[in-house]
# Entry
Amino acid sequence: MRLTIHHTTRYSFDNPVPFGLQQLRKTPKSTPNQHILEWHTRIIGGQKELVFEDHHNNVIELISFEPGVETLELVSEGRVELNDTHGVVGRHRGPAPLWLYARPTQLTEARAGVRDMIRDLDDRNTVDMLHTLSARIRSKVTYEIGVSQPDWSAEDVIKAGGGVCQDHAHVFIACARQMGFAARYVSGYLLLDDRTTQDAMHAWAEAHVEGLGWVGFDVSNGISPDTRYVRVATGLDYSDAAPVSGMRMGDAGEALNVQIQVAQQ
Amino acid sequence: MENQKIFDEMWGTEDSLREPYRKFQTWFDSEDPARLRKKQRDAEELFRLTGITFNVYGKAEAEERLIPFDIVPRIISGSEWFRLSRGIEQRVRAINAFLHDIYHKQEIVKAGRIPKEMISQNEAFLPHMIGVEPPGGVYTHIVGIDLVRTGPGEFFVLEDNARTPSGVSYMLENRETMLQMFPELFSQNRVQPVSNYPTDLRRSLAACAPPACEGKPVVAVLTPGIYNSAYFEHAFLADKMGVELVEGHDLRVVDGRVAMRTTRGYRPIDVLYRRVDDEYLDPLNFNPDSALGVPGIMDVYRAGGITIANAPGTGISDDKAIYSYMPEIVEFYTGERPLLQNVQTWRCSEPDALAYVLDNLEELVVKEVHGSGGYGMLIGPTATKKDLAAFRRKLKARPGNYIAQPTLALSTVPIFSRAGLSPRHVDLRPFVLCSPGKVDITPGGLTRVALKKGSLVVNSSQGGGTKDTWVLED
# Structure
């Protein structure tokens, strides 16, 4: 399957911004199952300072703002070829040690809510058990836009009983880690059946299963990722894999507009 | 401890003058104590004029204080130093190999020589350093190894300071002061110089320039600013090296490099000797509230645009719990027996060790795993019943936070007191510079002395003083 992707992030500031930096994690990973045929980043209102690979093998571009900028536009686009792997990403490839993904983080803390969520799971088959967990999360945390906050932890999400893909991923990761699995957050692109235009990236989780390696679980859609899924950035939680994170000087307010198009070639 | 014979570096254990102090003693005996007392006062005045002071943390106001200086030098023979410096070099090479391994393949963990938890549960492990190849392969450009002595040939490492060790300005100023006060002593004794340190430091830092460096490496010193307790030292070292002293707000990412503002625009920095802790180094990647660092510097570092000295994440090697594994670490990476000894250490995270420590608290020194500066520590033999009870509670509540060590019979060196020469306990912090394939150790280092009779705490924040440290040419 070949997908073409177009992703524009536009910031409009209500005052000129004297200085700012942003880390972009919008370039898909190059892996045995996912070939980048073509990929470009264009920046209007800023410049690319450098590019590097972080400890999760994410490609990060560091962007600086043009002094006094009022509109910053980040455009990423390209073509990706995907092989079907039935959700199995495969063996762990460093550089980070596997145990790093077994440690809880602030967003994936485990307390009573997580402990309840994993109670009495049938553990005879690991992959089945993780699918059951995914389905259970989906039934207890309804997919609903506008319920959760971006900085909510897995426990906050369970308590509220609703959230978006990011929240589903955090809950799954927190549960998997609590059960002793290494687990990680994935942000990426998803080809939808009914439309090409979307307003946010997708997110799902991966757990490391002995013998199989990393296996993906998309809680929000109740499936394991297939060739419609493009893996972009991974990390311990959202904060490691956010498409854009940064800082800027001044007290200007901002309006954010995201437009993503994913289409089959 | 009362039963142990204290080794005095001037008089030994049997009150017979040791060779390195022979000429000093002759000179001292011929001196008029009144003149020496005046010299002692002059020396203190000199320090005040130079501005060598430090701030004590935890005081209501950032009170500036002078670290007391004692005019009696601590003297080490050339052959003693030779043996010691070989041990220090071996240890520092092992520390660098360990850091590379920990942030790459973790062979030492796979080999079962260090439990995985020592790394995976360690707050000092910095994930952002995973996979980084620091320029020149050097992690710890500057190391201060804290040593104590209990006998003629018995040196123990108390602590490896692999983050941003301070105190080197005292080493240099102490020598400068002694040369001014007592020039005759330096014609009678052949003392190895320490004054090359700033030149060596600059050369050593420049030798670790990053791939992006073009031409002669530009070096700068990053300080948290004038309110930092070691600000004097930052300014002093920048001045002696002839490089810029900068603060976070002077720096910015420009064209993929970290650059400093100058009157003629931004100028890229190749090597940054930073005296800002990891947590505050980069608000974009670490503590977002930090105003002391440079946003994006870690990104520039990973992209090969700057050398950060010392490398971020070196704290995993001088952590007090890791310390207890140093003999294994030295053997694993050098294939040699450790030349320098570790102090026996009980890791209170282990139930047997904790039980022993609780039973023998009166005889032990208990330290916080991540503590420094002599804060949060218990010295069993001199502690009150109340202190002991408080520590018992702390140990039971968070055993993993503590290690314990026996109270060592630290050596003494005389200080010049009202009564003449009086023995006081000392430690030693030699300063080590690492550059690609090379380890330079300045002969001597900083001798800290507990000025209170019988006290074992030499930290300047706890009433310790300093001495000039001599290594003789044999």
In short: Chain A is about 15% helix and 45% strand.
